[in-house]
Specification:
Keywords: Membrane, Transmembrane, Transmembrane helix. This is Integral membrane protein. The chain crosses the membrane at residues 20-38, 50-71, 83-104, 110-132. This protein is mostly helical. It has one domain (14-138). The chain is built from 6 helices and no strands. The longest helix has 31 residues, at 108-138.
């Protein structure tokens, strides 16, 4: 005799991962919308190209929609979650690399903002990696 597993019990290990993905989607989406809506003032404040902020804003909004879609899945695909983790880690590394190599020479506010947002994104990657490992260990 086998016991039926409720949908809630089946997805319980997924919940922390889904919440992290959802939070990532919200933070990324808000950041992207800010880059789009406030590209002029933010470009002036950070001393970066307005066009760059517009491109990054559009990319971030699209990425946030994808991550949000993944977060809404009862059981997010481990392969897609790994892709989100990899993209987040790459974003963090690239953010620091553009400062270290002189590709960007932002204002003081930019030198604070860019590493700060890189740290947040890297934090998401680390937490998502840990949550994905926990899901894999429970299944």
């Amino acid at each position: 005799m086998s016991a039926a597993v409720s949908p809630t019990a089946a997805t319980a290990p997924q919940l922390p991962l889904r919440r992290l993905l959802g939070l990532d989607a919200v933070v990324t989406g808000v950041n992207g919308l800010a880059y789009l809506a406030l590209s002029g003032p933010l470009a002036d404040l950070l001393d970066v190209d307005r066009g760059l902020l517009l491109v990054l804003g559009a990319a971030l909004v699209l990425y946030a929609l994808d991550v949000g879609w993944l977060a809404r899945r009862a059981v997010p695909s481990p392969r897609l979650v790994t892709l989100v983790i990899d993209v987040n880690a790459a974003w963090a590394v690239a953010s620091i690399a553009v400062l270290a190599t002189g590709v960007l020479d932002p204002s003081t506010a930019g030198y604070v903002w860019i590493p700060l947002q890189a740290a947040v994104v890297l934090g998401f990657a680390v937490l998502q990696y840990g949550a994905l490992r926990a899901v894999r260990a429970s299944g």
